[in-house]
Design goal:
The chain is built from eight helices and five strands, in the order H-H-H-E-H-E-E-H-H-H-H-E-E. The protein is mostly helical. A hairpin with a 7-residue loop joins strand 2 (about 80-85) and strand 3.
Length: about 230
């Protein structure tokens, strides 16, 4: 029997093992364990088979700025997935989210929506500065974006990654991509005069909220709320 079909059958048994009927649950668990022993399939094989990928565009940046990378990490932390930057040859990079079940799809969607909001808010703030020095405009825009992210980070503090998911993602990434490298960008250094910039960035993020779906049935519902 094909290994993928066996793992799919094990998945079905494990789902049945969560049944409210004790006899049915016990029988399903025994069946799953028997299949795993017979075909020498371990728990990591089962978990890795649940891994999915989803991608999000980098917004036109050839080298994504610090705040874009930081946002991808926040989203990955919130939705129990992993964020990587993938680039082929001279093509513009994409943010690739890898996670269990629908978490990668939800993560990529969340990143896309929040990225657009952050980029739009940053651009609006920079346009209203009235500063001719382009380097200073960019610096203040980056400080604004970092303050926005700081405010958003508070909304993900309640999310805790599942260690089993982390191990499964590690195995999947190693098998499909080999060794990965850290993509590091330096954040803008706030100055004493940036107090108002930081306040503006944090206020701009006050309307954004993240929430986790309470069940798989709700996984396709919006997980980003923006108050009016």
């Amino acid at each position: 029997m094909d290994k993928l079909k066996i793992i799919d059958k094990i998945h079905k048994c494990l789902r049945l093992s969560e049944s409210g009927n004790p006899n049915e649950a016990a029988a399903a668990l025994r069946q799953a364990q028997a299949l795993m022993r017979k075909y020498e399939i371990n728990e990591e094989d089962v978990r890795t088979s649940e891994i999915q990928e989803a991608s999000a565009h980098s917004g036109g940046y050839f080298n994504p700025p610090y705040w874009a990378v930081a946002l991808s990490e926040l989203i990955a932390q919130a939705f129990e997935c992993r964020a990587y930057i993938s680039r082929k040859d001279d093509e513009r990079p994409v943010f690739r989210f890898i996670g269990v079940d629908c978490s990668a799809i939800v993560g990529a969607y969340s990143f896309t929506v929040l990225y657009r909001q952050l980029r739009r808010s940053r651009r609006r703030y920079m346009d209203e500065l009235g500063i001719d020095d382009n380097c200073e405009r960019l610096r203040q825009g980056n400080v604004f974006a970092q303050a926005w992210l700081f405010r958003i980070a508070k909304t993900v503090a309640e999310f805790i990654a599942n260690p089993k998911n982390e191990q499964a993602i590690d195995a999947y990434v190693k098998a499909n991509y080999g060794e990965t490298m850290d993509f590091e960008r330096d954040p803008a250094d706030p100055e004493s005069k940036d107090y108002d910039v930081i306040l503006c960035g944090m206020r701009a993020a006050n309307t954004v909220q993240l929430r986790r779906s309470v069940s798989r049935a709700e996984s396709n519902k919006s997980i980003i709320e923006e108050c009016a």
